[in-house]
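Postdoc handover notes: sequence design on the structure in folder B. Input tokens:
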């Protein structure tokens, strides 16, 4: 009996909207974090994680176009306390990009509790959102990138900035994998992206949303709340052909209007070569930072919005906020986030 998972409405839920992706070093380990289902955007849904969906970390090695390691999470229906059963599978090689592959079951547990041991640890549940930005600043950059105009900051006062995400929550999956893992060893260069997938009426899976670099959707596709952009459903290996030229034109127009570079086209083409394919690169075992000079993974503290807004405009865009804005919403120990 069809339950209409193929209808557009089935996918329009915060449970499938990826809000953030981070990769950083843990305790002799690599930590992967994905957030979904924010309470700030009007798409928040219950339960925390969609029971007919998959949530995946996709890992590429040495700049390869396809992933060779996938961590796949699935969730069941919530109990009376709202907690959901969860399962983690690891898929390697060709199976890592095969929706029909079963993979190896690594862990089974429940949301709100730690599962696993020193090799692999997992926590998933509702947290206090650690993300920070004043959305009024984002709207100014959105308008400029959309119509190719200069960013108008004449009314912007960084000293008056407030974090629009105060008192909001988000649902988070935190995975920690030991450096003893056969592929995730110190010194190895990886590329990471996250994807949400929904079961179909025909028995397969369709990709609904994905995330790599921070702020891509808010800057380039701010109205994409129906997940109807081709970018949502395509594999990252298709990014170069489909999106580099289009977005480079928007960036070049904004940079030219702002007169922030002597070669707007060259600047834009260089930037999109870094942003696409849309994967977050990281050298395992090294300090992570998403900054102006170095972008190597991303931590919960990084002021990624300020970096991205400045990059796409080739101008210094002061956010008025700093890592101190969320210091109470992150911890130095697993699971590194603060449960709500």
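Designed sequence:
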């Amino acid at each position: 009996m069809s339950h209409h998972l193929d209808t557009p409405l089935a996918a329009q839920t915060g449970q499938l909207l990826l809000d953030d992706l981070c990769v950083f070093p843990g305790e002799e380990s690599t930590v992967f974090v994905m957030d979904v289902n924010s309470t700030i955007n009007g798409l928040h849904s219950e339960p925390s994680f969609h029971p007919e969906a998959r949530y995946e970390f996709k890992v590429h090695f040495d700049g390869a176009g396809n992933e060779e390691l996938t961590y796949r999470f699935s969730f069941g229906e919530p109990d009376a306390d709202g907690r959901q059963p969860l399962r983690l599978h690891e898929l390697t090689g060709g199976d890592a990009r095969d929706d029909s592959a079963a993979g190896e079951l690594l862990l089974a547990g429940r949301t709100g509790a730690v599962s696993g041991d020193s090799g692999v640890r997992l926590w998933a549940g509702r947290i206090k959102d650690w993300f920070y930005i004043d959305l009024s600043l984002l709207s100014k950059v959105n308008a400029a990138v959309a119509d190719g105009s200069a960013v108008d900051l004449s009314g912007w006062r960084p000293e008056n900035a407030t974090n629009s995400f105060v008192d909001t929550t988000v649902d988070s999956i935190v995975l920690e994998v030991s450096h003893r893992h056969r592929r995730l060893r110190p010194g190895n260069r990886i590329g990471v992206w996250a994807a949400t997938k929904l079961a179909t009426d025909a028995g397969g899976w369709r990709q609904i949303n994905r995330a790599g670099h921070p702020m891509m959707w808010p800057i380039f596709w701010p109205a994409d709340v129906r997940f109807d952009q081709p970018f949502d459903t395509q594999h990252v290996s298709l990014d170069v052909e489909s999106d580099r030229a289009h977005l480079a034109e928007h960036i070049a127009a904004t940079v030219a209007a702002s007169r922030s570079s002597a070669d707007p086209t060259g600047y834009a083409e260089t930037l999109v070569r870094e942003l696409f394919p849309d994967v977050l690169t990281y050298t395992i075992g090294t300090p992570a930072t998403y900054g102006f000079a170095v972008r190597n993974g991303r931590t919960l503290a990084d002021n990624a919005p300020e970096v991205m807004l400045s990059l796409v405009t080739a101008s210094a865009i002061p956010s008025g906020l700093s890592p101190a804005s969320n210091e109470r919403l992150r911890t130095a120990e697993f699971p590194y986030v603060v449960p709500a």
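Context for whoever picks this up: Helices lie at 8-11, 135-147, 216-220, 230-233, 239-258, 264-275, 304-313. Don't rerun without checking with the PI first.
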